[in-house]
């Protein structure tokens, strides 16, 4: 029979997992960690067995705090795909960027992990009523699992929470209570209500279940990276020892901090089992308007000062008082490396657009913050090009934040007015559509990095009527220019065969082509002579090793007149 104890992270007192506890009975510490007696576990055999187990997070049941499998409430959560990024990775200059797609959970965020473990544990303990405070995703996930478990849920939301999220919790039968106040105030009120009524589930970091649930992401990532053929791992000792592969980085946007704390614990357990040989660094991202951890880290402090009035529209990340969670993350980063960065709401929205248009992944704003932070870490060189990076793609778009798209996001044609007869005004509609395509601008992009070229094309197409042709070498590019007479040529300098310099020379010496504006984008170190020559020939010279983003595309399209 499996044996689980809770251990106080402060005084190391151990208590059996037999009832719900609010903290350490001896010193009052609120964070307890689950400890498993795994002396009987044959790691080798366990790993072989894993291959045959169902693909949800309960495949790691030996290290989860449920004693009787019959109490497990599951909707098939966990085992989400680890998707290799191509276009976005190329634009950031990263070779091994992986997206852990937590959107694909039963309620579309990684809180499903927490819900399955927490609600199963409560079922095992015989609890019938639960109170939770949430900015949305936790309550939605708990509401779904509580419905299955027959447990009543009282969910408290701060007013910043989008109505769509509250409605979803209500659909699952949860009581929905909207509080006009901050998230921290909402938590306090919910705790008071719970003290009288029932059990307060969401103690944030204080919840054992949350940490245990989140750590399954570490187990999955290590298993999935090991199976990934794309990372060349030629180290013979690693292969011989049949180690699992830990990433160099785990990146996530953080509010309460349970995700990375749990993932850190997971990697630590794997390390202690001898299954991995390194600990990943943590990249923690917060919203600039609510970044107590980033503030503290930048000042070298191990304790964070709470933010009283978070200034962000991103409700999911509005924990102003991170409490003990920051101390744990600070310790982790001190021991194993990592960093804390912040990104503004606007940067998050832009990152959301770039991700959707480059890799086809649409995320909620909190996850946009993660990617905006990733961009900064890659651009500043904190993350190295060869590093294996895993990003927690923590939640889905629902609902698409108004601010993510500009006002021209659709074109409308009205078929209902003017004619009431059987004939639709088809002629008018077709000619309107044709006019639209006549204003299309043609662009030729010459760039030998296929992913970068495609990303430029996608970002331009997303901006409006641009028809973008790609060439991956100069000779093909020149053919395209001659055939298409584009409104703009964008070229790299270093290309196989006919290089960028030769391309520019030929266009500029051809009377029929010489008026076409040319933009050069290059990472090449230029000599003074090259620079002078280029400045005479081309309209714009962009020297960057940096990213291909909307700002760049904005600069490009202004060159078309
Ligand atoms: C909860 C949540 C976060 C923040 O996670 P924590 O680890 O609790 O700080 C980020 N993104 C999404 C989508 C979330 O639901
Ligand atoms: Zn204690």
Question: What does this entry show, briefly?
Answer:
The chain has helices at 43-50, 87-92, 111-124, 137-149, 163-171, 183-197, 208-227, 236-241, 258-273, 292-298, 324-336, 345-359, 365-379, 426-438, 450-463, 474-484, 500-508, 528-537, 550-557, and strands at 4-8, 14-16, 32-36, 82-84, 96-101, 129-133, 152-158, 175-179, 199-200, 249-253, 281-287, 338-343, 388-393, 441-446, 466-471, 488-491, 518-522, 540-543. By secondary structure, it is of the alpha/beta class.
Describe the structure.
The chain is of the alpha/beta class and 561 residues long. Among the domains are: 80-111 and 205-402, Rossmann fold (3-Layer(aba) Sandwich); 439-558, Rossmann fold (3-Layer(aba) Sandwich). It is 40% helix and 16% strand. The strands form 4 sheets. It has a 6-stranded mixed sheet, with helices on both faces. It has a 5-stranded parallel sheet with strand order 15-14-16-17-18, sandwiched between helices. The radius of gyration is 27 Å and the shape is globular. The site of pyridoxal-5'-phosphate has 16 residues, from helix 9 and helix 13.
Question: What are the defining features of this structure?
Answer:
single chain; 561 residues; alpha/beta; Rossmann fold; six-stranded mixed β-sheet; five-stranded parallel β-sheet; 18 strands; binds pyridoxal-5'-phosphate; binds zinc ion
What's the arrangement of secondary structure elements?
Blueprint: E1 4-8, E2 14-16, E3 32-36, H1 43-50, E4 82-84, H2 87-92, E5 96-101, H3 111-124, E6 129-133, H4 137-149, E7 152-158, H5 163-171, E8 175-179, H6 183-197, E9 199-200, H7 208-227, H8 236-241, E10 249-253, H9 258-273, E11 281-287, H10 292-298, H11 324-336, E12 338-343, H12 345-359, H13 365-379, E13 388-393, H14 426-438, E14 441-446, H15 450-463, E15 466-471, H16 474-484, E16 488-491, H17 500-508, E17 518-522, H18 528-537, E18 540-543, H19 550-557
Parallel strand pairs: 5-13, 6-7, 6-9, 7-8, 10-11, 10-13, 11-12, 14-15, 14-16, 16-17, 17-18
Antiparallel strand pairs: 1-2, 1-3, 4-5
Bound molecules: pyridoxal-5'-phosphate and zinc ion.
């Amino acid at each position: 029979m499996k044996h689980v104890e809770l251990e106080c992270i402060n005084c190391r007192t151990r208590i059996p997992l037999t009832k719900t506890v609010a903290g350490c009975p001896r010193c009052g510490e609120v964070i307890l960690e689950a400890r498993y007696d795994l002396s009987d576990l044959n790691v080798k055999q366990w790993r072989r067995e894993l291959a045959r187990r169902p693909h949800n997070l309960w495949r790691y049941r030996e290290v989860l705090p449920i004693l009787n499998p019959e109490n497990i409430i599951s909707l098939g959560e966990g085992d989400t795909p680890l998707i290799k990024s191509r276009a976005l990775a190329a634009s950031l200059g990263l070779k091994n960027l992986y997206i852990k797609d937590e959107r694909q959970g039963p309620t579309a965020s990684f809180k499903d992990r927490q819900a399955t473990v927490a609600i199963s544990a409560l079922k095992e303990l015989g609890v019938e009523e639960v109170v939770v405070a949430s900015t949305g995703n936790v309550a939605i996930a708990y509401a779904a699992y509580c419905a299955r478990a027959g447990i009543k849920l009282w969910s408290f939301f701060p007013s910043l929470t989008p109505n769509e999220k509250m409605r979803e919790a209500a659909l699952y039968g949860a009581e929905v209570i909207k509080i006009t106040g901050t998230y921290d105030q909402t938590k306090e009120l919910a705790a008071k209500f719970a003290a009288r009524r029932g059990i307060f589930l969401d103690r944030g970091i204080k919840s054992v279940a949350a940490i245990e649930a989140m750590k399954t992401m570490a187990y999955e990532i290590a298993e999935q990276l090991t199976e990934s053929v794309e990372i060349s791992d030629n180290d013979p000792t690693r292969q011989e020892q049949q180690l699992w592969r830990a990433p160099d980085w785990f990146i996530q946007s953080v509010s309460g901090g349970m995700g990375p704390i749990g993932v850190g614990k997971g990697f630590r357990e794997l390390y202690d089992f001898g299954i991995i040989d390194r600990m990943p660094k943590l990249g923690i991202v917060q919203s600039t308007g609510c970044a107590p951890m980033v503030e503290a880290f930048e000042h070298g402090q191990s304790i964070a000062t709470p933010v009283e009035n978070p200034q962000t529209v991103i409700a999911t990340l509005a924990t102003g008082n991170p409490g003990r969670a920051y101390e744990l993350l600070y310790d982790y980063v001190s021991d194993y490396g990592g960093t804390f960065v912040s990104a503004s709401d606007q940067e998050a929205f832009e990152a959301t657009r770039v991700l959707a248009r480059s890799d086809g992944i649409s995320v909620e704003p909190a996850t946009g913050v993660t990617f905006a932070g990733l961009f900064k870490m890659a651009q500043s060189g904190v993350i190295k090009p060869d590093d294996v990076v895993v990003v927690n793609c923590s939640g889905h778009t629902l609902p698409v934040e108004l601010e993510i798209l500009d006002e021209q996001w659709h074109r409308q044609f009205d078929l209902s007015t003017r004619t009431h007869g059987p004939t639709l005004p088809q002629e008018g509609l077709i000619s309107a559509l044709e006019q639209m395509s006549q204003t299309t601008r043609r662009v030729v992009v010459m760039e030998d990095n296929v992913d970068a070229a495609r990303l430029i094309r996608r970002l331009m197409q997303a901006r409006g009527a641009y028809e973008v042709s790609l060439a991956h070498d100069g000779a093909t590019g020149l053919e395209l220019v001659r055939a298409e007479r584009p409104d703009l040529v964008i070229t790299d300098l270093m290309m196989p065969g006919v290089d960028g310099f030769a391309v520019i020379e030929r266009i500029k010496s051809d009377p029929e082509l010489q008026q076409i504006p040319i933009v050069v984008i290059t990472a090449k170190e230029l000599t003074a002579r090259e620079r002078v020559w280029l400045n005479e020939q081309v309209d714009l010279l962009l020297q960057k090793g940096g990213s291909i983003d909307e700002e760049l595309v904005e600069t490009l399209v202004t060159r078309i007149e």
